[in-house]
Amino acid sequence: MRICLIVEGSYPYVSGGVSSWIHSIINEMKEHEFVIFAIGADTKKRGQFRYELPPNLIEVKEVFLDEYMYEDKRWGKRYNLSAAEKGCLAALINGQKTLNWGALFDLIRSEKFRNVGDFLTSTDYFDLVEELGKNTYSEVPFTELFWTLSSMILPLFLTIRHNIPEADVYHSVSTGYAGVIASLAKHLYNKPVILTEHGIYSREREEEIIKADWLKGYFKDLWINYFYTLSSSIYESADQVITLFNRNKEIEIELGCKAEKIRIIPNGVDIESFNNVVAEKDDEIIRIGAVIRVVPIKDIKTMIQSFALVKQQVPNSVLYIMGPSEEDKIYDEECKQMVKSLGVEDVIFTGMVQVKDYIVEMDVMILTSISEGQPLAILEGLASAKPFVCTNVGGCKELIYGGPDDTYGAAGFVASVMNYEEIAGYVIKLCQDRKLRETYGKNGFERVKNEYKRSEFIANYREIYHSLGGEENGGYRLRTS
Fold this sequence. Notes:
This protein has 18 helices and 13 strands. It is an alpha/beta fold and 481 residues long. It is globular and about 75 Å long. Strand 12, helix 15 and strand 13 form a beta-alpha-beta unit. A seven-stranded parallel beta sheet has the order 3-2-1-4-5-6-7. The chain has three domains: 2-64 and 163-267 and 456-473, Rossmann fold; 70-153, no CATH class; 271-452, Rossmann fold (3-Layer(aba) Sandwich). The chain has helices at residues 18-28, 83-93, 101-108, 116-119, 123-135, 142-161, 176-189, 201-211, 217-237, 246-254, 300-313, 329-342, 355-359, 376-383, 396-401, 420-431, 434-451, 454-469, and strands at 2-8, 33-40, 57-64, 169-172, 193-197, 240-243, 262-264, 286-291, 317-322, 347-351, 364-367, 388-391, 412-415. The two termini are 15 Å apart.
């Protein structure tokens, strides 16, 4: 069987998290061929893969959202759009969830749109923006509205015009641009589509937009509605929607996904590959570890502020921030500057490391994200019998405290987002109580061992692939030559 995984902003350019999840699926299912449709932000990243690609990954198709910068444009062209075509385009730029995606796909991929840049400098587009300005943004300068909308929809149009590799199953690992491409694949080839949402993409974009300094307030709703509109495409087209915990399912239903499509499959971890024995140490250092990418959504700055308070009460503590920093070099530099400005000692940015080698030495693990799905970092930490302090996002609370029928007990503490004092208080409590650390570590280990098995996670996806795109359904046979 040939499976096309559609990914945005992750594999194979970014390590950890969702990328590790994708890599493990491909490696575990050697009986299938995989194709990656990778959507990235920056053309400069082309070919800069962070993973050694498995032999059964036969193609990586790279598409970048900044490609529009390299297109020539002709001003003033007239497209003579029909009323239905104008309606599709107006629904997109107005952020309507009733958009006819099939009609929009046909229009954008037609000969009319051979050069997308020409459309966004056409009189037809000018008329659409003018109408939106009169009806909704009458107080906003027209030129600002024009260029804001252009920057919003041009990357989408160019992405839609790309060819999509043929496959038996299309599996999008988020909504957003990736979800639109999965919907397009179903429209073109009438093949089954799967969506897995680790975090709720549209909610994450909303959080980023609200905090964004580069976007003026009156355009924030425009962008937020746009991302919710993108998400609606795959909620409608997907044959199966998979999420990792019940709260995500509830949000998906709120956003318009039919409940009967949704199935919960938690992430899993191979418990045997982690050392769950508390290391004997020949020093008095308390090691606090964070397996994390140095990017804003992980809120490293709150972690540093928390550690500054911890250091006052636990002077023998050291914070290890373990993960790549290349993804957002400006943010990385801001975090390191914060360490200096606060005068905090013993904060170590390790960069990429073999997590299993480091995690065994840690006494306490910490995660301060402002948005998560069901973090592999927590699963791996608990598989190593380490207690956690994390923020109350995504499925973190369920991992630490368990569900309604849980019998294992707490595996740490869950704090409010961005509340560095609360986070610090919990970390200090664990640092000062070895017996509590050991108890919470054991509880977490038992929960992961019994409830989050990697073998079950892989088996569930194998069954879904087989049921939707197996050879009896006309699928490809794996090439052996």
